[in-house]
Amino acid sequence: MYDLLCTMAERPAPFCQYTAPDLWTRPHIAASMLAFHIDGSNDLASRKQESIVSIVDWIAERFAVDGKRVCDLGCGPGLYANRLAQKGAQVTGVDISTSSLAYARGHAPSAAPTGAPSYRLANYLEDPLPQEQDLVLLIYADYCALSPSQRRTLLARMRAQLNPGGAIIFDVFSDHMFQKLEQSTVLEADLMGGFWAPSPYVGLKKSWLWPETTTGLDHYLIACPDETFEIYNWMQYFSPHSLKDELQQCGFDAPAVIDFQTGSALGADYGDAFGVIVTV
Questions:
Q1: Taking the CB of residue 70, how many other CB atoms lie within 10 A of it?
Q2: What is the assigned CATH class of domain 29-173+238-279?
Q3: Dist. CA 134–CA 162, nearest whole Å
């Protein structure tokens, strides 16, 4: 325990550990995440239901998805994939969570014009991905949870999925959101109301910020009667300029930053998140 507490007290190097899959593969945490995803009334794990409907509407209209092949990476419980299938898209959802995919399959539209989405259990950084796609989605800041090298890997993999003229759409958390964050330490019994494990447990959360790179980390230590584990929840925040620069360095010309809620051009007063479209 002494070594673990020393680790919690020391400022780590950015992206030194990667535990994101644990959020989706540890059964108790995965169930907690799924509950937040399908709640529909908050933005804790996914957007509110009315926001999702609006986003699906503009994607479907802008890209004329009827009959198009669409891959939703990190599809979770199918909140976007199932709705896009109802718009006529041929959708493949990819996710690492068995519980989220079970929910997605169980709520897939049986009467979709081109059939229900196909759901695939896979790690989008490592496993084979659907090819010959017209549109690839990565929604709700999955991009921000990855290290710079992982982001380069994923961008190359998404590019390889696309047909000529295809497009990638994803969203990120903004530098405006980063400015609202503070470094902090929290120690609580059953931290986050039982989110991390069956009660009883004790949770220690240490939040770190790197203003020079707009990077944040929530580092959790969860101590249960029968085990102790850590979660590193990294988050990279972007300005429109920094995101465009990163994409151009990866070989994507003229990325278009957008208001992700409406698909319209991004204004100067963008809020906590925005999106980007790149075409190949």
A1: 27
A2: alpha beta
A3: 6
